[in-house]
Amino acid sequence: MYDDKKIWDDFREGESYALSHIYHKYIQFLYGYGRKISDNNALVKDSIQDLFFELIRSRENLGATDNIKFYLLASFRRKLISNLKKQNLFSFHIEEKDWQPEIIYSAEHDYIEQEKRTHREETIKKALQELSPRQREILYYKYTCGFDYEQICNIMSIKYDSARKQVCRALKVLKQVLSEQDIFTLFFFLLPSICHARTS
């Protein structure tokens, strides 16, 4: 199986298999990420379509990468912000680096929406509400996407030390309000992408 660098280089050179591979491997990941940022289903799909059209149109001039997932998410995030601005769903007075999307983890949907909420479900819900929007976002990139701090800094336009502090503070908050079993349950929902990557 080809690695990311080989596939990306082949895509830039016009190999059709590479485009098909990239699209089918990451389309659901991008869609899931987009829906965590906006509940506008059509806007998310249009933004993904815009992203791939732009990649295809300018592929000969694209930079190299050995991490396609990171490259796509960073590009998609910018595209989604642009489209939100065009539809007046994003304040033009807010700098991209200061934007704090309301990342919603699947744990919330699976736990909060259930009619019969157990004590553990309520505890996890409360813990997630204790996190700031920025902490939610950075934990998503760190644990769900599996990005390293340099990649997170690139996406969020923040400094390395700031990224590390945000993660540490978020984990500290979770440890203060959750038992070890609750933390294990929460991170089970945060880590599907990492677990999948390690077994594929």
Give structural attributes.
single chain, 11 helices
Molecular shape: elongated
Overall residue-averaged pLDDT value: 77
Radius of gyration: 18 Å
Biggest β-sheet: count, sense, barrel? Answer: none
Share of residues in strands? under 5%
N-to-C SSE series? HHHHHHHHHHH
N-C termini distance: 11 Å
Helices and strands: which structural class? mainly alpha
Q: How many individual helices?
A: 11
Low-pLDDT residue intervals, each spanning 5 or more residues: 91-96, 109-117, 191-200
Percentage of residues assigned to helices: over 70%
Question: What does this entry look like structurally?
Answer:
By secondary structure, this protein is an all-alpha fold. Helix content is 72%, strand content 0%. It has eleven helices and no strands. The chain has helices at 4-12, 16-37, 41-57, 68-86, 106-112, 119-130, 133-144, 149-156, 160-177, 180-190, 192-199. α7 packs across α9. The protein is elongated, with a radius of gyration of 18 Å. The termini are close together.
Helix-strand layout with pairing:
Blueprint: H1 4-12, H2 16-37, H3 41-57, H4 68-86, H5 106-112, H6 119-130, H7 133-144, H8 149-156, H9 160-177, H10 180-190, H11 192-199
Offer a quick outline of the entry:
The protein is an all-alpha fold and 200 residues long. The chain is 72% helix and 0% strand. Residues 91-96, 109-117 and 191-200 have low confidence and may be disordered.
